[in-house]
């Protein structure tokens, strides 16, 4: 599942929980028979999620390959793959680019733009806000490959951005080649800002109006109100949102793959693309898996942080 | 917490001049951002009706359906879309059936492992699926599931399962237990209770979860890209990529037209759901204090 | 407003317990059993590359399979066009061949990837089959060798070979005041011609050399190796059986590339990075006279042939050919590389005999002649080369066939595809200005050492 959708929480799930918050259900103990409906999910998760993860723990320590040596017969190589990664400039290049990509596009871009949009949405004329946020949401709802292709044409040599720059008399840009990581970061902001916007807009809606109003009566200006009242109240939402968009951004593959393929000269090759290139273009499945495992670990840590941030109610 | 939440802040009636300035400035600012977001979208729409489209957004000299006509065939359009439908439709069914079945005991019974299990499920929602695609690929080769539509459906279904369970359980928690109890006392089993009492009561929630799941899968590129190989099995996400790498520099208009065909289902679902899809997200992560 | 709830940390121990519990992996194989192998034993699946607008291969396969199935009722031929650019084709093909469920029965392979695939165990030897196939002896020894593994077994039937040279556009040359025929004797003369075009009234881009990862093997072979093998340096030392690193020729070749970009003697970088640029060049740039010189292969005129999507009947008058000179004109004066494609049978083919039977049909004399003409390729077969239709089909076939005499071949080693990828990377960092030629050379050295091991490399004496 594309990670974009993976953060919604059921509104309905919360509605009226106060009423039905009685611990005792119908026969409150789980028996073997009663657990039976959980079986399909358990089988699927064990076979297709836990299975591959465990398998990767094996694969990452082998020299399994698609072609050449290691394809016909696979052997254990111990920690070689990890040592190779740590000693490989291209791996570190990918790590740095992943950090840059995540920071620019998620932590700064999506997050700040999403917050800005949510704030503007509250204040702008209702119809204008509706139309504009619909556009932003449309960018987010589109399939990843389409988004990648659209943003490619936008940044391409002779694309829309060049046309616009031409209109205002500026020279052409070459972001796709000179700074591709910036181009793909912008693409990811374009694609992901709606998510943060929806999160923040919901969070803002949950702030009682009277808190703001009483502050206004105390003579606090809008900027001051934002910093001293709104922002602190939003802190939990910000923390969770940051974790979620970080997780989503860590696994972005298609968008970059379509736009730049990780190039030129590895200048936009984040970890997922590096992993793919090593495993498939170069056929080094074992090594690629080792890189994947490192990515998975980073994701797991982020996911644990997210788990801790999640309100207790969701975990019952 | 829940009680203190007001869904929409009531708009103050009677705007002062100050509010008006804020409103105008905000409208202006949001319009600037919105227009910036609009340009690539505008490109795809305009280019699809322009047989001599270029990379830059421009008004077609002559509106034409030529691009759509050019890709209006089984090979380019119908088969990939049908494959997408089989893949994503199948996987959505797998996910939702398994999720509803799994959520019921989660929601209704108490057991020692409940909390850790639920935590594991939530933890799994955060894992980057991208990172396990290489082992999944190797594993699928080992067990002979590679290039199998069934295999791809099951994997795609499983990969969105944690989140679907989490969502569904939330919706199910909101269904009052009392109604079910009468069904139970009448001797209905788990499945019947689910079917005749619980599911009808959480229909709208289930619709939201189903659509989330489907939309997420529809846009997924990496999973089918890795697991399906035969040209006649590839879904639109992958053929769009091959098409763009093959003709991307020559047939912009056709590519735009195909992009529109491919995006149409999700856009339509969004339009049908309207803001309730947005509302689904309203309670998105971390909204609660 | 109540104070925000602090989520309590998840019980770490319980969490671990669950994680450990989930370690009970379910036998996925049981699941696989349900889907099973669904290949029909009576069907022969033929895999080939389909990229861009050319459909010569498909036309030919359809023609042969029609007559073949008519003669062999009960057998059906399924075409498996693999839509992928250069390198992706090889990877995708290997992925398909790695499983009995997905493997084709007959696969069209480039000789450069062949040994690597043999090493991986994807292909099977066809020694027994060629023993009973009289046409094997019609195949040129160099091509036979290219399809023979290190173990001495034969793994495929070579079909075509190819050579490379400079194609130049006569109209552009006339506009720039350059001579025709054009016979450059050194790199410098090539660059001079390019500079002349740049400074002339012509709008055409002067010179195009395939470079960088996006062009895949084209960049390594048509681009880089056409330069390198004209410097006196080499990629692989046949005598010591080691890969050559740190060579002057390697650095000079990269420097040549750098010059093209520094002096704006080529298309913009963006077009170089477009995996589809060859299609644009053949279908638009050359017919419209927007490119002066192209370093490319013998087969490219097939895009302009009658009946092709980009038919351009005037090409034979408009396009001139020149041999690619060596760096300073040193012996033998010009350089070319030869490669080739052929039919192979994967390890997991359902029925080897049937597969070879179909290959025989594909390689029958009449079809081979037609195929060579349609595909504008250089045949490897003496019987085809003797056919009058072949001799007369194209004004260029004589020129390119003659080049074969001095042609060089890529190192026929399983590691070559990976080394080739390293070459493309070196080109890309130089053309994008990310590194200078010396740095790229050093990085190439590190990479090749990583691929083949320190015991299999040597530094060139400089």
TrEMBL record, chain A:
Membrane topology field: Multi-pass membrane protein
GO biological process, one term: transmembrane transport
Any single Pfam family the record assigns to this protein: BPD_transp_1
Stored PROSITE patterns: ABC_TM1 (PS50928)
Domain ABC transmembrane type-1: 96-306
CDD domains: TM_PBP2 (cd06261)
Region (Disordered): 1-23
Transmembrane stretches, start-end: 31-55, 91-120, 127-155, 175-200, 242-265, 285-307
Major subcellular site: membrane
Cellular localisation: Cell membrane
Keyword annotations from UniProtKB, A to Z: Cell membrane, Membrane, Transmembrane, Transmembrane helix, Transport
Cellular component terms (Gene Ontology): plasma membrane
Keyword field contains Ribosomal protein: no
Domain of life: Bacteria
Entry's family note: Belongs to the binding-protein-dependent transport system permease family.
Full protein name: Amino acid ABC transporter permease
Species per Swiss-Prot/TrEMBL record: Brachybacterium phenoliresistens
Organism placement in taxonomy: Bacteria, Bacillati, Actinomycetota, Actinomycetes, Micrococcales
Automatic annotation (TrEMBL), chain B:
Record keywords: Cell membrane, Membrane, Transmembrane, Transmembrane helix, Transport
Compartment annotation: Cell membrane
GO CC annotation: plasma membrane
Transmembrane segments: 21-46, 81-104, 116-140, 146-166, 205-230, 250-272
Region span, Disordered: 1-20
BP term (GO), one: transmembrane transport
Pfam annotation, one family: BPD_transp_1
InterPro entries xref list: BP-dep_ABC_trans_perm, MetI-like, MetI-like_sf
Chief place where the protein resides: membrane
Domain of life: Bacteria
Nucleus among keywords: no
Similarity comment: Belongs to the binding-protein-dependent transport system permease family.
Annotated protein name in UniProt: Sugar ABC transporter permease
């Amino acid at each position: 599942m594309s990670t974009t959708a993976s953060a919604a929480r059921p509104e309905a799930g919360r509605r009226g929980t106060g009423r039905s918050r009685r611990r005792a259900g119908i026969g409150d103990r789980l028996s073997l028979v009663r657990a039976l409906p959980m079986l399909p999910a358990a089988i699927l998760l064990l076979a297709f999620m836990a299975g591959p993860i465990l398998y990767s723990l094996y694969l990452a320590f082998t020299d399994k390959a698609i072609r050449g040596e290691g394809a016909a017969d696979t052997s254990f190589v111990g920690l070689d793959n990890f040592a190779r990664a740590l000693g490989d400039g291209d791996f570190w290049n990918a790590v740095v680019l992943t950090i840059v990509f995540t920071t620019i596009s998620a932590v700064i871009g999506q997050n700040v733009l999403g917050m800005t949009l949510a704030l503007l949405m509250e204040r702008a004329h209702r119809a204008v806000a509706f139309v504009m946020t619909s556009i932003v949401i449309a960018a987010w709802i589109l399939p990843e490959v389409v988004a990648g292709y659209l943003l490619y044409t936008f940044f391409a040599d002779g694309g829309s951005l060049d046309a616009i720059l031409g209109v205002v008399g500026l020279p052409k840009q070459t972001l796709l080649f000179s700074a591709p990581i910036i181009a793909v970061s912008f693409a990811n902001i374009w694609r992901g800002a709606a998510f943060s916007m929806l999160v923040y807009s919901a969070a803002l809606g949950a702030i009682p109006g009277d808190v703001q109003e009483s502050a206004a009566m105390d003579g606090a200006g809008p900027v001051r109100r934002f910093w001293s009242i709104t922002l602190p109240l939003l802190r939990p939402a910000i923390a969770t949102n940051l974790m979620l968009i970080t997780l989503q951004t860590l696994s972005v593959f298609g968008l970059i793959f379509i736009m730049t393929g990780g190039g030129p000269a590895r200048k936009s090759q984040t970890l997922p693309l590096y992993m793919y290139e090593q495993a498939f273009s170069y056929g080094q499945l074992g090594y690629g898996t080792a890189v994947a495992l490192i990515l998975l670990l980073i994701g797991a840590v982020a996911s644990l942080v997210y788990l801790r941030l999640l309100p207790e109610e969701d975990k019952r | 917490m829940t009680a203190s939440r007001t869904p929409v802040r009531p708009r103050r009636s009677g705007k002062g001049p100050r509010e008006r300035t804020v409103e105008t400035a905000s409208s202006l600012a949001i319009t600037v951002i919105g227009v910036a977001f609009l340009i690539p979208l505008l490109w795809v729409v305009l280019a699809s009706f322009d047989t001599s489209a270029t990379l830059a957004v421009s008004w077609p000299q002559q509106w034409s359906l030529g691009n759509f006509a050019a890709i209006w065939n089984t090979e380019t359009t119908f088969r990939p879309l049908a494959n997408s439908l089989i893949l994503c439709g199948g996987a959505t069914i797998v996910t939702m059936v398994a999720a509803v079945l799994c959520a019921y005991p989660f929601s209704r019974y108490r057991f020692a492992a409940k909390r850790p299990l639920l935590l594991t499920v939530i933890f799994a929602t955060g894992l980057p699926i991208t990172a396990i695609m290489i082992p999944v690929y190797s594993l699928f080769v080992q067990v002979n599931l590679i290039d199998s539509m069934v295999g791809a459906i099951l994997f795609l279904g499983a990969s969105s399962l944690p989140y679907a369970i989490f969502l569904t359980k939330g919706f199910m928690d909101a269904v009052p237990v009392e109604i079910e109890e009468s069904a139970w006392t009448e001797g209905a089993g788990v499945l019947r209770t689910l079917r005749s009492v619980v599911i009808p009561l959480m229909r709208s929630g289930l619709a939201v979860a189903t659509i989330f799941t489907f939309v997420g899968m529809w846009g997924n590129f990496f999973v089918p890209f890795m697991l399906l190989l035969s040209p006649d099995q590839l879904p639109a996400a992958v053929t769009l990529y091959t098409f763009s790498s093959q003709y991307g520099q020559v047939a912009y208009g056709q590519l735009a037209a195909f992009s529109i065909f491919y995006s149409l289902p999700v856009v339509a679902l969004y339009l049908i759901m309207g803001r309730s899809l947005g509302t689904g997200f309203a309670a998105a992560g971390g909204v609660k204090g | 407003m109540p104070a925000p709830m602090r989520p309590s940390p998840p019980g770490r121990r319980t969490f671990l317990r669950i994680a450990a519990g989930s370690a009970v992996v379910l036998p996925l194989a049981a699941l696989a059993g349900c889907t099973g192998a669904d290949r029909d034993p009576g069907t022969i699946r033929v895999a080939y590359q389909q990229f861009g607008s050319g459909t010569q291969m498909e036309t030919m396969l359809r023609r042969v399979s029609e007559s073949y199935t008519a003669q062999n009722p009960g057998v059906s031929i399924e075409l498996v066009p693999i839509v992928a650019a250069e390198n992706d084709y090889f990877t995708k093909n290997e992925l398909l061949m790695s499983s009995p469920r997905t493997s084709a029965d007959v696969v069209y392979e480039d000789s450069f990837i062949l040994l690597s695939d043999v090493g991986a165990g994807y292909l099977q030897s066809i020694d027994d089959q060629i023993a009973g196939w009289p046409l094997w002896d019609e195949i040129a020894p160099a091509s036979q060798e290219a399809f023979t593994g290190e173990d001495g077994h034969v793994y495929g039937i070579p079909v075509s070979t190819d050579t490379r040279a400079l194609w130049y556009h006569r109209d552009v040359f006339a506009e720039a005041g350059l001579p025709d025929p054009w016979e450059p004797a050194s790199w410098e003369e090539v660059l001079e011609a390019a500079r002349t075009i740049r400074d002339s009234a012509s709008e055409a881009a002067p010179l195009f050399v395939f470079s960088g990862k996006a062009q895949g093997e084209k960049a390594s072979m048509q681009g880089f190796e056409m330069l390198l093998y004209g410097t006196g340096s080499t990629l692989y030392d046949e005598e010591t059986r080691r890969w050559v690193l740190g060579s002057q020729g390697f650095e000079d070749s990269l420097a040549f590339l750098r010059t093209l970009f520094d002096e704006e003697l080529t298309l913009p970088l963006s077009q170089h990075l477009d995996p589809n640029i060859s299609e644009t060049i053949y279908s638009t740039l050359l017919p419209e006279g927007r490119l002066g010189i192209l370093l490319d292969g013998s087969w490219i005129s097939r895009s302009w042939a009658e009946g092709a999507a980009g038919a351009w009947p005037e090409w034979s008058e408009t396009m001139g050919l020149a041999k690619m000179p060596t760096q300073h004109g040193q012996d033998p004066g010009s350089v070319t590389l030869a490669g080739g494609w052929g039919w192979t049978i994967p390890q997991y083919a359902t029925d080897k005999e049937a597969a070879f039977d179909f290959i025989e049909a594909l390689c029958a004399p009449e079809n081979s002649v037609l195929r060579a003409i349609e595909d504008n390729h250089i045949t490897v077969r003496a019987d085809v080369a003797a056919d009058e239709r072949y001799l007369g089909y194209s004004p260029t076939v004589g020129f390119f066939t003659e080049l074969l005499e001095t042609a060089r071949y890529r190192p026929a080693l399983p590691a070559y595809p990976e080394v080739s990828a390293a070459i493309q990377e070196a080109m890309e960092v130089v053309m994008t200005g990310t590194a200078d030629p010396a740095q790229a050379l050093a990085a190439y050295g590190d990479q090749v050492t990583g691929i083949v091991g320190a015991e299999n490399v040597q530094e060139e004496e400089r």
